[in-house]
Amino acid sequence: MLSQTTKEIEAAFKAQNWTYNIDQREDSSALITGFNLKSGDSVQVFFISAGDKDLAIRVFRAIDIPAGKEDIAIRTCNKINLEYRFTKFVVDNGCVGVQLDVAMETQNMGPVAIELISRTLDILEHSLPTFKSAFGAAPAGGSFSGNNADRF
Question: What pTM was computed for the model?
Answer without folding.
Answer: 0.85
